[in-house]
Every structure is written in C-alpha cells, then in structure tokens.
Amino acid sequence: MIVPELELETVEPSFRRLAIADNLRRSLATKVLVAAAVEVNLTDFMFFRDIFKKKFESQWQAPFRIEIFMLKAMAEALKEYPALNSWFVTVPTPASSEAPSTAVASPPVYQIRMYKSINIGLAFADEKGLIVPVVKDADQKDYAALAKEIERLYQGVKNGKLPPRDYKSGTITFNNPGALGGVDGFSIPPPEQSAIVSLHKIEDVQRFNKCWCKEAKLNLVFDHQACDGREALGFLNSIKSYFESEKYKSHT
C-alpha cells in the first residue's frame, strides 16, 4: 500500500512565538514541576459581583474583573507561604585551573532566592500568542489600584504599547484559562519563578442533590525543588478561604 505524502506548509514563527518557546524550554530544563488543585466555591462571590459591579466600576474607573480579587488573594497568601514567591537556582561554579586530566569537577551550588517583592505576572492571550505583563508590588495595592493597573496593562497589551519594564521582574504568575472555557490544564511557570496559579471555568455544580453552586478548579503548578505539597496546598487553601469566607468584602 502506497501512503501519499502529506502536504505541508512551512511557517516562520513570530518573534513572540520564539520567545514563548525559548522561555518554556528554559523553564522545563531547570524545574521539577508538579501540580496541586482545590475546588473553590464562588457562589457568594458571583452574587457579590452581580450586585456591586456597577458601583465599584464607578468608584474605580476601571472594569470589575475577578483578576483583581485573585491577585489580592494571592498576595495575602504569599505572606503566609513565601516559598511560592521564590526561585530555585543552580549557581555556576568557577572553572578549575588544573589540567583537564587532574581536575576534579566542583559540585553544583544550589540556592533558593526568596523574593522580597510580590510582583504578579498576569497571563494574557491574544491572536499573537501568550504575553505576561507584571503587576508590581501587588500586596501594596488596594482594589482600586489593582483594578486600574490591570486595566492599564490590558489596554497596553491590546494596543501593543507597553514598555519593556512592564514585562520584567515577575515573582509568580496568575493565569485565567477559565475565561476561554478551560476546565483543567498544566501551565508552566516562567523561568525565574517557582509557581503559576490557574483559575479554570466557573461551572454550576449540584451539591447534596439539591443545592446548585458555582465552583471552579484552582490549580497550582510549582517547582518541587523550591517547596513541598504542604506549602503548595496551604497557599491554595488560603486563596480558597479568601473567597469562601468572603474576606474580599472587608477590603471593599
């Protein structure tokens, strides 16, 4: 049986596609990635959004987005679990001056670099691919400041006018595949970060055969070299508690 050759079209990858590919390769080459997840009940939060959306948009002069509250929750959780706000590094050792035949290889030097700032990357996807501007000092911003900064970054990405500094110095990343209908997945943290948080699609779920709730999977992919499951799940449960115990109301 003769199998016909497949017709192919060769496409040159864009600059952004090459940058994405390079970052993914570098990150995978240096990390031991594992995942953890929790289910978050967002019923009360969605009700809160429906009631107060217009009020807060008027106060903030910016759109009401769930990212505002996720970044606030992440920033607070990182203060309790700072291991997620870090980078596991292999430090290059100086080359030996001895002859190759007698030189003894130096053991690698490892470090965990703990970031003092909380700078949260915000993953956006458009027709050109993935791009991640950074909300600097997220822990020091109130809801109004977060709303305005996220809107500035969103418009800058949309118009292609963000300066390079807005893409630098991230310490952890938030991704929202749920906005595109994603219900699960495995994201990869940027090269100099240990973790990425993903919020998946908010769905109607029936509980106890009578109560309908709005729930979403909150997923964390992290470098197991930098921290363990205790910190990872503690971090996720802190975010979960932020929404389920309605802590967001105390800040608004």
TrEMBL record:
Superkingdom in the source lineage = Bacteria
Domain named 2-oxoacid dehydrogenase acyltransferase catalytic: residues: 10-245
Q: Which keywords has UniProt assigned to this entry? A: Acyltransferase, Transferase
Q: Which GO terms describe its cellular component?
A: cytoplasm
InterPro entries, alphabetized: 2-oxoacid_DH_actylTfrase (IPR001078), 2-oxoacid_DH_E2_comp (IPR050743), CAT-like_dom_sf (IPR023213)
Cofactor(s), by name: (R)-lipoate
- Gene Ontology terms for molecular function: acetyltransferase activity; lipoic acid binding
Q: What is this protein called?
A: 2-oxoacid dehydrogenase acyltransferase catalytic domain-containing protein
- What is the protein's species of origin? Candidatus Azambacteria bacterium RIFCSPLOWO2_02_FULL_44_14
